[in-house]
Amino acid sequence: MNTFSYERATATESAIHAGSAKGAKFLAGGTNLVDLMKYGVESPTALVDINHIELKDIVAASDGGVKIGALVKNSDLADHPLIKARYPLLSQALLSGASPQLRNMATTGGNLLQRTRCYYFSDISFPACNKREPGTGCAAIKGYNRIHAILGQSDKGSASGESCIATNPSDMNVALAALDAKIEVEGPRGKRTIPFVEFHRLPGSTPWIETTLKADELIVAVTLPPAKFSKNAYYLKIRDRNSYAFALISVAAGLELEGGQIKSAGLALGGVALKPWRREGAEMTLIGKAAGPEVFQEAAAALLKDAKGYEHNAFKIEMAKQGVVRALTLASQGTTEGMQA
Amino acid sequence: MATDTSTPAKELNHRYEGIAKVTGKAKYAAEFSQPFPKANLLYAYIVQATIPNGTIASIDRYAADLAPGVIAILTPFNAPKLNPGTPEPPARRNLSLLQYKDVHYNGQPIAVVVAKSLNEAKTAAQLLKVKYDAKPAQILYRQRLVDARWPKNPGKEPAGNHRGDVQAGFAKSAVTVEQTYITPIQHHNPMEPHATIAWWEGEELNVYDSTQYISGVKMSLAKILDIPVDYVRVVDPVVGGGFGSKGSMWSHVPLCVMAAKVTGKPVKLVLEREQMFGPVGGRPSTINKIKLGASADGKLLAMQQDVLMNASVMEDFTEHSAGPTKNLYMSESNSVTEKVVEVNLGVSTFMRAPGEAPGTAVLEIAMDELAEKLKMDPVQLRVVNYAEKDPSHDRPWTDKHLRDCYTQAAERFGWSKRSPTPGTVTEDNALIGYGMATATYPANRSAAQAVVRMLPGGKMFVGSGTQDLGTGTYTIMAQQAAAGLGIDPTLVEVRLGDSTLPKAPVSGGSQSSASVLPAIQDATTQLKLKLADLAIADAASPLHGLKTLDIEAKDGKLFNKSDPSQTDNLVDLIARNGNKPVEASGSAEPSESKDSMTSNSWGAVFVEVAVDKDTHMVKVRRVVGTYDIGRLLNRKTGLNQLMGGVVWAISFALYEEAHIDPVYGRVANESLAEYHVPVNADIGTIDITVLDIPDVKFNPIGSRGIGEIGITGAAAAVANAIYNATGKRIREYPITPDKIMLA
């Protein structure tokens, strides 16, 4: 690990000021950044510890939504009465992620920025990773790619400086995508709000740019619109073991039902792309229809349209389709406690 | 004086070293800060190759040399020259000690950076600029099976073994099964990674090392460094697991010693978790083509297994996965071959139940398939083919009660409720299935020595140069020593893990208890004689003037066998001896029976799984295992070890696999987040029982080792249960949700 300076910020303004220095990074839970520093993937020159800033509240907003402070821990968020009652989808997604120890440290803002688990990104002994070293290529394309993307990836060949088939590993993000969350950020140029779908970027031709957040901007809160799916939500995570494993695929499914008819729907896939995968078209296939297996299969097909698998992950296409149908089926049957980890 | 071997030693209810471990007082190899001045301690970090094949053209060390805290950098260009020649046993591994510039696998140690702190060593390591002349590499053996060859050094077992005429057997078989089964590359990941501290005192070398074999490390270092064996001392009081990876010495130990030599300071070298995937061995992948033939009533007429596996270009290692096919069942004929394919990967090695773990995992699926074709209950098929004697050597077993294991475990499990038709039992969204398999592992024993002392105050000392891998060696040594004089085991002080103690074998092959306890038994017998003689010669003793053979020991007293009211308390006896301890040594060799009989442990294991219909995720809900392991020495440590083995078998069945990158030849998932082993949520109830029938023909204690048998059989039982649940037969481990979905 390279040497770096450490500064503890106690207010948003001073944090943003310190964070705008070249090479500086914000330190929240540290569950991802510190690991990557140890691996030599991240080498910030300065760490700005934001853990002492008062961004730890979860409050009901006047519009019926909820505002979540960026430093709320994953475990606190999952167990909060407002979240459990109004957004069980988010609670379930959080509890399916990582381990209790990690959830006790990981924060809402940090989880938004969790970096990919691609082996070729996190091990600097592999020479090719456009995300880590722009222009070096993508070793995953010809490598062991079981955990990689099937949707939205950039594949111009393993040697191309624009290729990247990594996935976003967060469970929380998948639920927030389905819930139409918004992200509030502050920077030297003031405050702005980023709709969730616009926050994470697909690799495109610049795989190393992962979000629309600027380097000197600090995430201060995540807001959720008034709850629509509290009665019919399910987060399904298919993984290689029953806890402490990243998703092979995951599905966040929320339905608003009215007399058996689907009034609105939120549907997002995890483990398949560099951002939680949503397609308005998929949700449109559901709206106005009666909940049932055939409609769910249609939605699955729409969501997975144009998916492309690789040597070790082609199974994800079928697995995701089955997962979508299962998650929508369970959501339509009514919210339960959901999965625990 | 007769030794009463029929009475079991009094058991300790807790691990001897348990409190020291949970309070942090037990010191693991990397935790020592004495007797050298702690301020002098330097930290070494191994730099690994990043190409799979080629040579090192140059190492630019300019920036690294200037980095803060750096004391020395060892590379193939400046490292001390060591005793040439290929390592011989016990250093059976082809080590990477910076003696040549060739790179044989990605991850091979190619340099060592020594600095004042670990972070400084690691930071400087990243500044080394290594240039290679790369050569094409062979990575995936499954793409090159035509290159398979016989192993150069297959070990104890021949690579090809044939009994009877299998072709004739298959020709007359009413039913045959012929399938290919695959097991993956796995890497041992004990909680404590490999760790060494080395320092020189003049010509003498001291080493703290996390190892399963202190004497092996001692002999190997002496050979490599070309110094007298007696100049080396290896200390290892507690080990946080080894599982075979610490059974032989790997490169990091001599590299640490070399760094200590070059710097003239004590040096600590601890492997990072990522460094556990390659440079310290692993279990090779095996492809097993198995053919079974049976008569209509289920009698095996022929068994054939042809195995292909990966081996490192550096050294052959044979995983004898065909072992169980030779002797687990009584077949009229059998034929096995084991061949290797060379690849640019690190050297393979022993991993818990080498041979039997993958061997039972594949053979016991084939047996399940055969039972189904025969429309026979899987337990019944195994009973029909019960081996009353060892088929491979045509000689008797020292003891065998496997039939009772099947009966007892099946009863506890409720096997009679199994539906023989797959896919017919459901619960909510899950398919429920039952499966079973046989567990087997040979009973091994080697020569061992021990020393015991009667101490003042009724206390005792026992010492042997063995190791405790967290398995209970301390505990059962205390019990055995105490049993010899009939004292309470809590009064015994135990020492092990120091090469200055009497020599004991490697803690591998499930042999430590079976080897060391008979040596302690011999030592306590000698001690009793000495104490009796002391009493006889002592005019103040009530036993004064008796004959040695008249005296026995019980409850901390010597007594006259013809008149048990005549006693001499050991506390008083030693007090009258001026409180001078009385010492005796003992040793034991394998029994005479080893050349005329075969000793083996067995078990029967039954598994219930639930497989989700949509997610295809598996939950192992129940495991019931009954084992015939001779005498159980300690309930807590023994059953725990068997249970740990079963957990690992579940890992084998469902989770564990090293994924090798096909281009660069590195293990892609080299962390415990991505190299999956079971977590608590994966494990249901595990019910372990043992028959506890002493095998006194094997050794006088009647106990066969239990380190490995737990991992055998259970993986196939999981696979068979998944078939019973789903009707899907998965023949490649680990059985992940995608494989079930696609089958």
Strand residues, percent of chain B: 15-25%
Cα Rg of chain A: 19 Å
Low-confidence stretches of chain A: none
Chain oligomer state: heterodimer
Rounded mean pLDDT score of chain A? 96
Distance between the termini of chain A: 32 Å
Structural class of chain B: alpha+beta
The DSSP helix count of chain A reads 13
Instruction: Profile the largest sheet of chain A.
Output: 5 strands, antiparallel
What's the average pLDDT of chain B?
95
Strand order of the largest sheet of chain A: 4-5-8-6-7
Number of strands of chain A: 11
The chain pair forming the largest interface, with residue counts per chain, is: A-B, 40 and 40 residues
Low-pLDDT residue spans of chain B:
1-6
Strand adjacency order, main sheet of chain B: 3-5-1-12-9-10-11
Explain briefly what this protein structure is.
With 341 residues, chain A is of the alpha+beta class.
Write the layout of secondary structure elements.
The complex is a heterodimer of chains A (about 350) and B (about 750).
Chain A: E1 5-8, H1 12-19, E2 24-27, H2 33-38, E3 46-49, E4 58-60, E5 66-69, H3 74-79, H4 81-86, H5 88-95, H6 100-105, H7 108-112, H8 119-122, H9 172-178, E6 182-187, E7 190-195, H10 196-199, E8 218-224, E9 233-238, E10 249-258, E11 261-270, H11 280-284, H12 293-304, H13 315-332
Parallel strand pairs in A: 1-3, 2-3
Antiparallel strand pairs in A: 4-5, 5-8, 6-7, 6-8, 9-10, 10-11
Chain B: H1 18-22, E1 42-48, E2 54-60, H2 62-66, E3 70-74, E4 102-103, E5 109-115, H3 118-125, E6 129-134, E7 160-163, H4 166-171, E8 175-183, E9 195-201, E10 204-209, H5 214-225, E11 232-235, H6 252-263, E12 267-270, E13 286-294, E14 300-312, H7 323-327, E15 334-343, H8 356-374, H9 378-384, H10 402-413, E16 426-427, E17 430-442, E18 448-454, E19 460-463, H11 473-485, E20 492-495, H12 512-537, E21 551-554, E22 557-560, E23 563-569, H13 570-576, E24 582-588, E25 600-612, E26 618-628, H14 635-654, E27 683-690, H15 714-726, H16 737-742
Parallel strand pairs in B: 1-12, 10-11, 14-15, 19-20, 26-27
Antiparallel strand pairs in B: 1-5, 2-4, 2-6, 3-5, 7-15, 8-13, 9-10, 9-12, 13-14, 16-17, 17-25, 18-19, 18-24, 21-22, 22-23, 25-26
